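forwarding from the other thread:

> can someone predict this with iron/sulfur cluster?

sure thing
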Amino acid sequence: MSTSATVPLLEVRQIQKFFPIKTGLFSRVTGHVHAVDGVSFSIEKGETLALVGESGCGKSTVGRSILRLFDLTSGEVILDGTRIDNISASALRPLRKRIQVIFQDPFSSLNPRMRVHDIIAEPIRNFGLESDEAKIKERVAYLLDKVRLSKDAGERWPHEFSGGQRQRICIARALAAEPELIICDEAVSALDVSVKAQIVNLLQDLQKELGLALLFISHDLAIVEHMTHRVAVMYLGRIVELATRTELFSDPKHPYTSALLSAVPVPDPEKKTIRIVLQGDVPSPVKRPSGCHFHTRCPEAIDICKTLEPKQTILPSGRMVACHLREV
Ligand code: SF4
């Protein structure tokens, strides 16, 4: 999906992650959860790619696969030209600092027994970026300032902060490793609406200033609309559409994207949108529908959709869509 002739910062090629379902006394494998099935995309340096879809579509599993929190069933993850999904833990260690993560829940992702200074200093020490304590102190103060927290925040404990402030601490900790890519895994989902906007603005400012790339995983298209360069829409473990933000929001090609967009609130009361209500729940990733996995809920489904899986079609503009109605 890369449009650049240079090596992308991150490339994910046809990754699959199936979790076995074990039952009985002998833990016999009786099925698989098909969490991610053939996902490919790339992220350029300094780019934001949003990965969106309903809960359970596999987007967080993609993020965790990139972080090597578990092994892939198949496929490749390539960081700046180096394959990282199959290298040893010791070979991975120097590369780890280049990808950091911010999780959804700032309450559980900070150690309550560490002061904020030590939380932020930890990656600086662990990755060997600095050993002089005076310089570490300076660096922590700089990072606190970057996330718009006061200098004295370093002497306080995580429980003394609000949810939004804790997420700022998580961002400062991620920045401390001097990463090139940050995976934001539903990083603003647990926050109030106004706080959400502040954290999104902060991430955007930091991205511009530091040239960071972001993989922004979210179930909320309204959040990604103003902050991403491209959007990949996932449904039941697969990317069904990938396009620039402008293309996707102005002219969605996949019926699932259209349905998600129709649920995004429009601030202009003059601009009327017709809400597309999808019938039923997302089917189980254990027993996915045949053909196009979306056919059980798709308002535009035709006969072939029940039996034949649609190809990923690259349209003349370079965007991708997987739908029989868009095949060229
Ligand atoms: Fe709907 Fe068929 Fe397109 Fe799937 S392939 S999104 S079921 S029209």
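The pocket of iron/sulfur cluster is lined by residues 254-255, 292, 294-295, 298, 300-302, 305, 310, 323-325 (CB under 6 Å). thats all i got for now
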